[in-house]
Design goal:
The complex is a heterodimer of chains A (521) and B (162). In chain A, 41% of the residues lie in helices and 15% in strands. Chain A has 521 residues and is α/β, with parallel strands linked by helices. The relative contact order of chain A is 0.10. The chains are: A alpha/beta (521), B alpha+beta (162).
């Protein structure tokens, strides 16, 4: 009798690759060959526990056992210890699903991410894939839209607009052509959930978009992925090809009369193209300048046709809603924030990664119970929540529950769920300056408050940092922020003041401590 | 390694034609040209304008809007360093200073020997393993100055031996 075939999982997620996952996989393959052990290596997505990447898992009768971080040089030792049987080792973490960071999560959107082979339709099906679509294929468009509306799903890209209401507008629009556009231009620092799910469970996005297409009567779709994500682009393209092969995309989706064609388009390094109208311009082959709204993209979107524009995490939440029903999803969460969000712990954090939890979890739980504090071991002084346009929050607000309304009440936003952690070495005046600098670099230039305001903002911050007439310049900065907030065409200029003002409000001491300012006192 | 083929009108025409069937084809065409030549040559502008029935100014406007499209050939290798907030929190600024000194090059520049182009980037999506650097198509996380030197050692040696 031959030895049983061992299965070992080594992630192919870009974050894992960035710390040597390919080298680790090659070392495992070579070591197994050297020892004459038959081995199957599956290149899965990431489980999202990024501080222990490369996280190698071994299939055992009890479940998958985790080892990490595994570098190529650790591999021989792991074989010696008997890791293929799940034996103990300095890098062992026991059963992956029992690791507290993972066990305490509520994985709905990311249910399959890190578990399956992302490019196996069969694996996807075995783990519940396409069940939502199959159910949708038997429903009327209005029933699908109702299901999504009743789930309480709100746009995960930042603005939090109810997804079902958007779909309903497109469904009711009369047109010869409608589109589904997935905004995968995830440019916010501190966010990587879109990238992770596109690399770890690409069929989930394809399924979500196909359900959206059937719901509103669209026959063409685009996924607009930022060029900084070459691995996600490659994985999505391959997954789309496989979905066509298996008739999950194309002219006749599984013998039903439904037609849906899907293509990937790649951005070109413009942050503003994450704004939906700017993304549509870019998809049309133009400069990514924002459009004035109205008209809403739902009525006049891509090429002037009714278009659903949804973020990756909104669309990847749709399959489970259709599979398990609206009430299943709605039962997670608090208030008007229903379901789960994949929070991303980033920056100076000991245990960085994805934490999918129902809304209502507090920053404190995320930062300390999951995140374990800073990696530098110094106290957390500030976090930026919701990307470069999100507020800087001090520890006094860490008890805030993650909920769209609770965050809005303190002039902050949940956004895309990214949380960037800074220790006490951070200079908040510098961070405020950076917010303006970023806006100046990334403004599309269409409206004056954003285009000129951001440049003036950098200049004013430079004077404050240099200690030049600080009180007067802070008044000027507040004025400028007001003009940008009230006068900008889109969120870029309109929300750049949020990090600036929150830094000023919660960390005023950083704005008045330049040598010149101190000397003048 | 970056593609850096010298300009060829025939090649460019073929690259453009291969993307002709796409709607909103200008960005895919620009990406394909840059993949072939390493940049968008001035000579490509009228070809694109003619193909898409646009003015040359329109095409120029699109090329210049996007940070990614270059107007001159890059070095043999491109190093992209993230300077967004998550990487800032892990001292990306210190890393950037180190890289500038080490390679004797600033952002948006190419080293004198044509080996490396250094580009800033806002977010590589590796924010839990900051600071992040991309060398050609390879992403690296937790990049300290020492790790940067280790990552680039073999490429630097190869380039020095040229």
């Amino acid at each position: 009798m031959s030895e049983p075939l061992h299965t070992v999982y080594v992630p192919r997620d870009a974050a894992a690759l960035s710390v040597g996952a390919d080298e680790t996989a090659a070392a495992i393959r070579a070591e197994a060959t050297r020892r004459g052990i038959p081995l199957r290596i599956v290149r899965n997505g990431s489980r999202g526990m990024l501080w222990i990447e490369t996280l190698v898992e071994v299939e055992t009768p009890e479940g998958r056992v985790a080892y990490g971080p595994v570098m190529a040089e650790d591999v021989a030792g792991l074989f010696d210890a008997g890791f293929l049987e799940g034996a103990d080792h300095a890098l062992a973490h026991g059963l992956t699903e029992k690791i507290p960071y993972f066990a305490k999560q509520e994985r709905l959107t990311f249910a399959r991410c890190g578990i399956i082979d992302p490019l196996s339709v069969e694996d996807y099906r075995l783990h519940g894939g396409f069940r939502g679509l199959e159910r949708a294929l038997a429903m009327t468009p209005a029933e699908i839209v109702t299901e999504v509306t009743e789930s309480g799903l709100r746009g995960r890209g930042g603005a939090g607009f109810p997804t079902g209401i958007k779909w309903n507008t497109v469904l009711n629009a009369k047109a010869d052509q409608k589109y589904i556009c997935c905004n995968a231009d995830e440019g916010d620092s501190g966010t990587f959930a879109d990238r992770m799910i596109m690399e770890g469970d690409p069929f989930c996005l394809i399924e979500g978009m196909t359900i959206a297409a059937i719901a509103v009567g669209a026959t063409e779709g685009y996924i607009y992925i930022r060029s900084e994500y070459p691995h996600a682009v490659a994985t999505m393209r391959e997954a789309i090809r496989l979905a066509y092969d298996e008739k999950w995309l194309g002219d006749e989706i599984h013998g039903t009369g439904h037609r849906f064609h899907l293509d990937v388009r790649v951005g070109a390094g413009a942050y503003i193209c994450g704004e939906e109208t700017s993304m549509l311009e870019s998809l049309e082959g133009k400069r990514g300048t924002v459009r004035a709204k109205p008209p809403l993209p739902a009525l006049e979107g891509l090429f002037g046709k009714p278009t659903v524009v949804n973020n990756v995490l909104s669309l990847t939440s749709v399959p489970i809603i259709l599979d398990k029903g609206a009430s299943y999803y709605r039962d997670f969460g608090v208030g008007r924030s229903r379901g789960t969000l994949a929070f991303q712990l980033a920056g100076n954090i000991k245990h960085g990664g994805i934490v999918e939890k129902a809304f209502g979890v507090t920053l404190h739980e995320l930062l300390y119970e999951f995140g374990g504090g800073t990696i530098t071991g110094r106290p957390i002084r500030a976090v930026q929540a919701g990307g470069p346009l999100g507020a800087y929050l001090p520890p006094s607000l860490f008890d805030l529950p993650k909920d769209y309304e609770a965050f809005a009440a303190v002039e902050a936003m949940v956004g895309h769920g990214g949380i960037v952690v800074f220790d006490d070495s951070v200079d908040m005046a510098r961070q405020a300056r950076f917010a303006m600098e970023f806006c100046a670099a990334e403004s599309c230039g269409k409206c004056t408050p954003c285009r000129i305001g951001a440049v003036r903002g950098v200049e004013v911050m430079d004077r404050i940092i240099a200690g030049d007439k600080v009180a007067k310049n802070i008044t000027l900065l507040n004025d400028l922020c007001e003009v940008m907030t009230d006068g900008s065409l889109c969120a870029m200029g309109g929300m750049t003041p949020i990090p600036v003002r929150s830094a000023l409000k919660h960390f005023p001491e950083d704005f008045t401590r330049s040598p010149a300012a101190v000397a003048a006192e | 390694m970056n593609a850096r083929s010298p300009w060829s009108e025939d090649r460019a025409t073929a690259v453009i034609a291969a993307n002709r069937h796409l709607r909103g084809a200008l960005l895919p065409m620009l990406h394909a040209l840059q993949e072939e030549f390493g940049c968008i040559d001035e000579e490509a502008i009228p070809l694109l304008a003619r193909e898409l029935n646009l003015s040359r100014a329109d095409v120029h406007g699109v090329v210049s809007f996007y940070h990614e499209f270059r107007r001159s050939r890059p070095g043999r290798h491109t190093i992209k360093v993230c300077r967004a907030e998550a990487c800032q929190s892990m001292n990306a600024d210190g890393l950037i200073d180190h890289i500038r000194r080490r390679l004797k090059v600033d952002f948006h520049e190419t080293t004198a020997d044509d080996a490396f182009s250094l580009e800033p980037v806002f977010c590589l999506g590796n924010c839990a393993l900051a600071p992040a650097v991309m060398v050609d198509e390879t992403l690296h996380g937790r990049v300290s100055p020492a790790r940067f030197d280790a990552i680039t050692a073999s490429t630097l040696a190869t380039e020095a031996a040229r």
